[in-house]
Design a protein that fits this description.
Structural class: alpha/beta
Radius of gyration: 20 Å
Distance between the termini: 29 Å
Bound molecules: phosphoric acid mono(formamide)ester
Number of strands: 11
Shape: globular
Strand content: 15-25%
Strand order of the largest sheet: 9-8-7-10-11
Length: 348
């Protein structure tokens, strides 16, 4: 059974084309902020997935706009470069009729020495009710959440977390895997795991989804993950993950391969001999991908270093869903803005 939920969240919107179809059986959303996926239980991840389905229905309409966030101010405050996350949050918020304010730290008073906390107080005084934030320092959105009266959505913090990316990755895998489920599927995350907030958030959501998760890369870029994997519980019905530098073993029979960018900007000296050597040993090429299932799903969160972690012909291979990830990012972020707006000031 579905209800047509309008701007107020009440049933029976008088404007059918302005409604979002949401299941009446859906559990309530309890969270005021989205700082990482580690606080979401499986029913909440499922709620994000089904709400994203509803947002895709909205996006398929001739006019992909609903009034769900009319009158709400969504402020997007990014201290680091971004194309996909920043633009998709802006598109998502506008599709929900929010008032959107964009602040790039590089052209703000941050350059004059303003602290993060003072910036948060300032944007709230300027009307921000929902704050989407990216920061180079791990934990910065947690500090923001402690000082902000509305909801904070983490658009990526340092090496730590990128929850909306993990949720759009899960959504995209379910869309493209036969049977629509990740449970029991061999999912390989390949590359610079050490510096990757995408990998860290995906570990939580993919193990919760029951994936057979393999992390693969040079041992210098896997440091610490072996201990995390060894300590992760083997819960019936849920997955755990393993760590290897054996690329052949990782790719053999893989259902999904997600290549990660080599993050040169975060790389301390000595972790890699050279990009050329990395590409030669760990780059995802057509020849190496032949070890995976013939219908393997190829992913990359972007931005890509083509010719380093992924060959150009693999990035554009028919099995690549990299542009689908970007497109799904809008629907997933619409779903998250919608869910968080529903508990503004009430959640934890
Ligand atoms: N995947 C991702 O976060 O991309 P951007 O840096 O372009 O936002």
């Amino acid at each position: 059974m579905t209800l047509e939920i309008g701007a107020s969240g009440s049933p029976a919107s008088p404007v059918p084309e302005a409604a979002i179809p949401v299941s009446a059986q859906a559990p309530a959303w309890r969270h005021r902020h989205l700082l990482d996926v580690d606080v979401l239980d499986w029913s909440e991840i499922e709620l994000v997935m089904t709400t994203t389905d509803a947002m895709r229905e909205v996006l398929a309409r001739p006019i992909a706009k609903v009034p769900a966030l009319r009158g709400r101010n969504v402020t997007i405050l990014f201290y680091e470069a971004s194309t996909r996350t920043r633009v998709s949050f802006e598109v998502a918020a506008k599709n929900l009729s929010a008032d959107v304010v964009n602040i790039a730290a590089a052209t703000s008073s941050v350059t004059k020495g303003e602290s993060l906390v003072d910036t948060i107080r300032t944007v709230e005084a300027l009307g921000a009710q929902m704050l989407v934030m990216r920061h180079a320092v791990s934990g910065a959105p947690y500090l923001a959440a402690a000082h902000f009266g509305g909801s904070v959505l983490n658009g990526g913090d340092g090496w730590h977390a990128h929850p909306t990316q993990a949720l759009l990755d899960l959504y995209t895998m379910r869309e493209h895997l036969p049977g629509g489920s990740v449970a029991g599927r061999k999912v390989v995350i390949l590359g610079d795991i050490l510096h990757s907030r995408v990998a860290r958030s995906n570990i939580w959501s993919l193990t919760a989804a029951g994936a057979d998760l393999w992390l693969c890369g040079p041992s210098t870029l896997l440091r610490g993950f072996d201990r995390w994997a060894a300590a992760s519980p083997r819960i019936p019905g849920h997955g755990r993950f393993q760590v290897t530098s054996d690329l052949g073993a990782a790719l053999a029979g893989a259902d999904v391969v997600m290549a990660l960018r080599i993050q040169r900007e975060r790389m301390a000296g000595g972790l890699l001999p050279s990009l050329r050597e990395y590409a030669a040993r760990f780059g995802l090429t057509r020849e190496r991908l032949a070890a995976a299932r013939p219908d393997v799903v190829v992913m990359h969160p972007g931005p890509m270093n083509e010719g380093v972690e992924i060959a150009p012909d693999v990035a554009t291979d028919p099995r690549s869903v990299i542009t689908n990830q970007v497109t799904n990012g809008v629907a997933v972020r619409m779903a998250l803005l919608y869910l968080l707006a529903g508990v503004h000031g009430e959640g934890r």
